[in-house]
Amino acid sequence: MLPQVIIIGRPNVGKSTLFNRLVGKKLALVDDQPGVTRDRRFGDADLLGLKFTIVDTAGWEDLDPETLPGRMRQQTEASLVGADVALFVIDARAGVTPLDEEIARYLRSSRIPIVLMANKAEGRAGDPGLYDAFALGFGEPVAFSAEHGQGLADLFEALRPHI
Ligand code: GDP
Ligand code: MG
Q1: Which atom belonging to ligand 1 lies closest to the Cα atom of 19?
Q2: Ligand 1: does its nearest atom lie under 6 Å from the Cβ of 158?
Q3: CB 148: neighbour CB atoms within 10 A?
Q4: Which of 71, 83, 120, 158 is surrounded by the most beta carbons within 10 Å?
Q5: What is the per-residue pLDDT for 65?
Q6: What is the C-alpha separation between 155 and 5, in angstroms, rounded?
Q7: How many domains is the chain partitioned into structurally?
Q8: How many whole angstroms from its chain centre is CA 153?
Q9: Tell me, what's the pLDDT at 37?
Q10: Phi and psi of 57, rounded to 5°?
Q11: What residues does the EngA-type G domain cover (predicted)?
Q12: Which CATH number do you get for residue 37?
């Protein structure tokens, strides 16, 4: 069985685009509207020869704001079951949002390794977000562009020790 790598992050950070980039096929639905993907999707990823099962998650947007903190913790914990590593994705252009911080809080208490990815970092537009991302406490973020396929070698280096 291949190691399982799960993609976690708030809606619209580029999780499904990352999934498609790593699988190389259009398996996950990507849309300009946040929250188009509904379920978890599994794909066979090949990252510069590193092979693993990649899991795209969705459904964060369906959480009721009233019960958000508890439900989000549940959802995060449920997603991590069976995973060997989590890719925690933020939007480098948007910087770190309160929802990112909330997710980070739950991930910090998990025992699986977390690789922080600052997506949408093509060009220099993501620089402030990259700087902010350090404060989340997961070490140096991998600057990435799922849309343009940039950062693959850095992601490889960050993932390899864990799988
Ligand atoms: P998800 O909700 O986290 O699964 O996000 P999606 O993968 O559906 O992407 C949300 C939006 O961000 C779409 O409009 C994507 O085209 C866009 N997007 C994804 N990756 C990148 C990237 O690397 N750079 C830029 N500029 N936009 C991206
Ligand atoms: Mg999605």
Answers
A1: 7
A2: no
A3: 13
A4: 120
A5: 65
A6: 12
A7: 1
A8: 17
A9: 43
A10: -115, 155
A11: 3-163
A12: 3.40.50.300
Atom of ligand 1 nearest to the CA of 20: 7
| 79 CB neighbour count, 10 Å cutoff | 21
Give residue 20 CA to ligand 1 midpoint distance, Å.
11
Ligand 1 contact, 4 CB (< 6 A): no
What pLDDT does 5 receive?
96
**How far does residue 79's CA lie from ligand 1's centre (Å)?**
21
Digits of tens for pLDDT over the chain (163 positions)?
899 999 999 989 999 999 999 998 655 555 554 544 456 788 999 999 999 999 988 776 666 767 766 777 777 777 888 899 999 999 999 999 998 998 998 899 888 999 999 999 998 877 888 888 988 999 999 999 999 999 999 999 999 999 9
The answer to whether the beta carbons of residues 74 and 100 sit under 8 Å apart is no
Name the residue type at position 31.
D
Please give the residue range of the domain that contains residue 142.
4-162
Bridge partners of 31, per DSSP, are none
Two structure tokens written together for 55: 């899991």
- For the beta carbon of residue 86, count every other beta carbon within 10 angstroms: 26
Geometric angle at alpha carbon 145, from 143 and 149, rounded to 5°: 120
Show the DSSP H helices in 109-163 as ranges.
127-133, 152-159
